[in-house]
Write a structure and sequence with these properties.
This protein is mostly helical. It contains two helices and no strands. The radius of gyration is 39 Å and the shape is rod-shaped.
Length: 95
């Protein structure tokens, strides 16, 4: 075989390999893109949840700063120790 035929066979094989490689890379990039979209959706949900948590923490901080939670807790404790206001009477049984 002459050298030109060898070169043509090499370029044919190299061209086919390049096309197969490009198709393979496109397939991989397509799946990577799907994964990135899923991650983006998950991150958006996490950000929304963290914003809600930050808002709740800010409300609790305001409640504590105003003294509201402590006065409610103290009222709960005091009302729990007072009971219903009546004392139980013991009944003696005679033998």
């Amino acid at each position: 075989m002459n050298e030109v035929l060898h070169a043509n066979i090499f370029f044919l094989i190299a061209s086919i390999a390049t096309v197969v490689f490009c198709v393979f890379i496109c397939f991989i990039l397509y799946h990577v893109l799907k994964i990135v979209k899923s991650l983006r959706a998950i991150i958006e949900r996490i950000e929304a949840g963290s914003e809600m948590i930050a808002h709740d923490v800010a409300q609790v901080r305001e409640l504590v700063a105003s003294g509201g939670i402590w006065s409610r807790a103290i009222q709960f404790i005091i009302s729990g120790t007072r009971g219903s206001g009546r004392k139980r009477q013991r009944v003696r049984t005679e033998e």
